Amino acid sequence: MLDHTSKKIKERKALVVNPAKTCQPIGAMYAALGIHNCLPHSHGSQGCCSFHRMHLTRHFRDPVVASTSSFTEGASVFGGGANLKTSIKNVFSIYKPDVIAINTTCLSETIGDDLPTIIKDSEIPKGKFVFHANTPSYAGSHVTGFSNMVKAMVTNFSEGKGDGINKKVNIIPGYTEPGDMRELKRIVKIMDIPCILFPDTSGVVDSPMTGKYEMYPKGGTRVGDLIDTGNSIATVALGSFASEAAAYELEKRCKVDAHILNLPIGIKATDELIMELVKITGKDVPYELEEERGQLVDIMTDTHHHFHGKRVAIFGDPDHVIAMTEFTLSLGMKPVYVVTGTPGISFEKQVQKMLEDSHLQGMVKSSGDLFALHQWIKKDPVDLLIGNTYGKYIARAEDIPLVRFGFPNLDRSVHSYFPIVGYKGAMRIIEMISNALLERVDRDAVDEDFELVL
Amino acid sequence: MIKLKNIQKILEEYPPKVKKNREKHMVVKGLDEKHEIEANTRTIPGIITNRGCCFAGCKGVVLGPLRDVVHIVHGPVGCSYYTWGTRRHKGRSEAGEDNFLSYCFTTDMQESDIVFGGEKKLREAVKEAYELFKPEAITISATCPVGLIGDDIHAVARDAQNEFGIQVLAFDCEGYKGVSQSAGHHIANNVLMRDVIGTGDAETGKYSINILGEYNIGGDGWEISRILSKIGYHIVSIMTGDGTYKELKSAHKADLNLVQCHRSINYIAEMIEVKYGTPWLKVNFIGIESTIKTLRHMAKYFGDQVLIDRTEVVITEELASIEESLKIYKKMCAGKTALLFVGGSRAHHYQGLLRELGIETVMAGYEFGHRDDYEGRDVIPYIKMDADSRNIPELQVTKDEKNYRLYLSPEKIEALKKEMPLSRYDGMIKEMKGGSYIIDDLNHFETEELLKKLKPSLFCSGIKDKFVAQKMGIFSKQLHSYDYSGPYAGFKGAIVFAKDISMGMNTPTWSFITPPWKKIPMLEGKIVKEVGAC
């Protein structure tokens, strides 16, 4: 497995091998699925749309439907205006969504299609919405695409004066699983805080089987609520890479205060979220949450010997990786290699600081790839790998246990139904890490050291 | 005719322009003699097609499986990323042999590369790839923006080839070329034919063959090779599942070319025949009867009694080994119906296997087949070339005076043509039952409507369709990825397929869809009781 990856590291300036990111439009497509009765539309040649649907479908094992402008060579030279107008007409008459959320690709961005003008000149039935986000694949990553689409939701829908008239808190959950979005809604519900979560893919890509296929499932943030985000008390944006652009946009447009937090993965980050919500709303923290937190600390204490001092490599999307790095430190682990494929110097700064504060030396890289990560591991191995499905090649090559974390998870199921955020999610992560490490202890033990109780 | 009504109803839902377009892509078998279908035309924007792009057809399908080659994708990160490990073209290498199948290589173009051009970065990337991996060859595949910004990938390839002394091949497979994956097949075929095939000089044995258009999904190619080797064939090269650049170079030295996937590789099959004199045989290793038929055709082509006898021995042995399991699955499948919608060949190839299991195919369609895949190669002279396909280059080859040779005399070939599909393919429609539907470039709306109206037991399609059907309670088998199972080809594969679909159609989970409280009239019962109590 990966036999051509050598220990010897040669600097690469141009060739990326086994990337730790993918391109913008898939993130935008995912975000758009978080609007109720919305059809994502890909303005480019149809290959992108198929690839993005394919990948999301494999991750969620649920239908992911989106339309495309299906550029031909002619449109690529003379512009895709006619393709988009035809698309909008066909989509509304055949598929009848309430909203079409358009993302762009490297094709339409390179030729410079003017989307606002094309949309303005299109036939849009009364009461229906068409909006777009520019998502050039040659900038940033899928996380950037998600961020751009969420920002576009604000630009196109949010109205209000930020006077908190609706008594709600906006929550932007980041590029997370529907299980996480459900957990966030549960937390604010038990805190008795009315909220608008957007985008919200719960009930969309984790829809039940009923014997009837629903093209637009029950879930997704309603357009009315998107508009209402401008009337909220505050916006809590989780994960700066995925969520802060929209929160700042909302602050700019409607004067709703933006509160940027880390993704609430692990105890510290969840504490911060709860404290911020208390600060914003003045609400008390109910016993139910306190109990969950206490249970989590109890578990962490009971099991600390499982992970203490273990060297771990973490890769994936920046918001996830930043939060996970912090959590592994809280567990007494050593996150020695920390990589994201998404560009952004703030990632390196944040992670470096965490490591320094813990007196740890490690390699940290944004715009990194899995080939480089593998080379580091070859030189100086780790006890655990935390990352998406693509980590399984390295895990196998180097015989390291892998905890599947983040997007995409193509070779295991059920992950999208359960949270990794909040105290509950932290418990689940501990269970995953413990199980991975202990399975390895069992596998490697000689008979006389094979323990019944661990 | 009820059958026609179903299609009419679907078409009536469309805006007039869409209706006019789509009705040409739909045929009911037996309605007229000609069965002319429109295919390989541009996709209707916004229709929710299943199609992919030219890049997918070139790099994803034809080139990607060549395991000893570093395939560099020149573009932003997505295109390479989505073709990394997602198509299950398996490959294994002997110790010391190159195998890059678990890798993904890209120039990861950034904004500055779009603005100032990406040629410099590509040059550097090829150099780095060469220095790091020392592969047999390198391919460069273009993606959408490359053609638009005018990067000269051919100049980069030429210079790198001179500098490093290995072949570096450039493919103009920008995603917007043509109307589907199909254009990419053609582009890949052209370059492999022009620059690779014919450059090698490997020794070939008796009964030497190439297997064309077989990508070893889930190990299909290995099952086919197992059977052929058992009989005594010498496989010179496989295009391209578990294939190598090294073997491909000597493909011109085989005595017969087998064509499994007609759509993706017929260009090479035809060109080899013109240039080197080797005829091709349309084969089908999917299904037991088709496999047997294919093996007998092959034996007859070589005409050697030892080979013919050996073929029969192997067939008997193989049949005996699957007989028992086949009986079980036939019982589980009998009387069921299926809809088939797969890329450019499987929608045809699987019909025989399904029939053997007792399953009737009531609708079949291709994403990107051409008219010849539907109607047979006889219609090729009548296919109108449209503007979208005109830009895909046609490679003209001529007789290679040095390497041209005829294994059989032209007279013998002519005689054999009457008995087997030599350099001929009759298409899908001919094999289908009267009253069945043939629909090209089926879209999401049509899929949903047909599933509701026809209520098949089985829907064979891809990942994007799978969960749509299953939400309705209809088992959907992926015929691209085989749902991570396989092989499905050959004798053993037929049993694996039969087992998989029997399992899928009969899994206990279907019975849980309706909750018990929706099956039993609970409320009613209580009211009656209460009334009684009064």
Automatic annotation (TrEMBL), chain A:
The keyword Coiled coil does not apply. It catalyses: N2 + 8 reduced [2Fe-2S]-[ferredoxin] + 16 ATP + 16 H2O = H2 + 8 oxidized [2Fe-2S]-[ferredoxin] + 2 NH4(+) + 16 ADP + 16 phosphate + 6 H(+). One of its GO terms (cellular component) is molybdenum-iron nitrogenase complex. Tetramer of two alpha and two beta chains. Forms complex with the iron protein (nitrogenase component 2). This molybdenum-iron protein is part of the nitrogenase complex that catalyzes the key enzymatic reactions in nitrogen fixation. Belongs to the NifD/NifK/NifE/NifN family. Its cofactor is [8Fe-7S] cluster. GO terms for molecular function: ATP binding; iron-sulfur cluster binding; metal ion binding; nitrogenase activity. Its EC number is 1.18.6.1. The keyword Coiled coil does not apply. It comes from the Bacteria. It is an enzyme of class 1 (oxidoreductase). Keywords: ATP-binding, Iron, Iron-sulfur, Metal-binding, Nitrogen fixation, Nucleotide-binding, Oxidoreductase. Binds 1 [8Fe-7S] cluster per heterodimer. Residues 23-437 form the Nitrogenase/oxidoreductase component domain. InterPro entries: ChlB/BchB/BchZ (IPR050152), Nase/OxRdtase_comp1 (IPR000510), Nase_comp1_CS (IPR000318), Nase_Mo-Fe_CF_bsu (IPR005976). This is Nitrogenase molybdenum-iron protein beta chain.
